Amino acid sequence: MQRAMLNWNGVPTHVITEGHWVEEGLSQYGKKDIVIIITGNPGIPEFYEGFIKTLRTRLSIETLIWVVGHAGHVQPPNNLLTTMPNDSTWNEHYSLMAQLEHKKEFIKKYVPEDAKLHLIGHSIGCWIILNMLKDVSISRRVVKCYLLFPTIEHIAETRNGWFFTRVVSRIASFLIFLSWILSCLPHFLQIFLISIYSLLNGIPAKYNKAIQQLLNPRSLKNVIKMADEEMEIVKERDDDLLSKHADKLWFYYGNCDGWAPVRHYENMKFVHPNMNAELCKHGYHHCFVLQYDKEMGQIVGDLINESIS
Q1: Which residues participate in catalysis according to the annotation?
Q2: Which residues share a beta bridge with 277?
Q3: Minimal CA–CA distance to 295: which of 151, 150, 148, 160?
Q4: Are 228 and 254 a contacting pair, CB within 8 Å?
Q5: pLDDT top residue among 23 and 108
Q6: Residue partners of 173: CB distance under 8 A and separation at least 6
Q7: Quick one: pLDDT band at residue 27, thresholds 50, 70, 90?
Q8: Are 228 and 167 in contact (CB under 8 A)?
Q9: Sequential DSSP letters for 188-231
Q10: In the beta sheet, which residues pair with residue 122?
Q11: CA-based nearest residue to 233, from 97, 102, 104
Q12: How far apart are CA 4 and CA 38, in angstroms?
């Protein structure tokens, strides 16, 4: 597994790969299948490490797997001689629409024209992938899209959306202030406090680094502000888009999801009865990467095997 900050679209962005590195190209390897994962919000690739490790071992052929984080959700390390665009460039670099362009530009820059793309989206990453399909230069390379716990309609009206808009959004400044206090503490003390939080909430210790990245004040600010935009922008489901690309789509809805509730699955199947959409029977949570990364890696891996067989 390799990880680094790549700079495209004007923003240093965290990318993790299983297989050779993104910038090495494909011609010398003879591989044409690439799996690209578009994260949810927060867009921190470290949260998806367990998922892609399982995915890699499950796939029947050697396939490249790339996890692309969201611009501004992971800050460059201090020893990296690069800077992030400032907050005044929000619309250009960090907004929800900018994140969409950011992912499109990644594919256009690093994915060869003749590659076969398998796109995996999680949460708001599903909305981003669906909108990427509007670009013909991308959609013609896509074999299949695997959309996990998709937040593609009326997010603000969900249980978690209601809590975010009425509670979290209103105390955002206080939460960012607390994260600033945490960032002022010595590194070992930060990790100690995060470890206690993880233990109390049943989060594996392997995610402590990702949580620390999330609690960087600037990262947390970007995460919350982007979530605010999601509440405003993601409303009506794009049924025309779904119908047009139905043969390339597979949805997986949770049966206990506060962001994409069962009624969204039912609405989808009512309008699109032939859509390849599945309702979870196992009780996997929306943030599956924290507890069910292996299970979901096996499910998606098996589906990708079917598409490339």
Answers
A1: 123, 257, 286
A2: 251
A3: 148
A4: no
A5: 108
A6: none
A7: low
A8: no
A9: HHHHHHHHHHHHHTT--GGGHHHHHHHTSHHHHHHHHHHHHHHH
A10: 148
A11: 97
A12: 16
Cα dihedral angle (95, 132, 45, 42), rounded to 10 degrees?
40
Instruction: Assign 82 a pLDDT band (cuts: 50, 70, 90).
Output: confident
Query: What pLDDT score does 30 carry?
Result: 58
Place of tokens 């390339």: 248
Q: How many CB atoms lie within 10 A of CB 61?
A: 10
What does the alpha-carbon distance between residue 93 and residue 85 come to, in Å, rounded to a whole number?
A: 7
Contact 260, 248 (CB under 8 A): no
CB 149 within 8 A of CB 257: yes
pLDDT band at 77 (very low <50, low <70, confident <90, very high): confident
208-256 pLDDT tens trace: 999 999 999 999 999 999 999 999 999 999 999 999 999 999 999 999 9
C-alpha Rg value of the chain to the nearest Å: 19
Quote the tokens at residue 307: 């598409």
Contacts of 136 (CB under 8 A, 6+ apart): none
C-alpha 136/C-alpha 298 separation (Å) is 30
Look at residue 14 in the predicted model and tell me its pLDDT: 94
Residue 8 pLDDT: 86
Q: How many residues are there in the chain?
A: 309
The residue whose two tokens read 């011609």 is: 27
Distance CA 52, CA 122 (A): 13
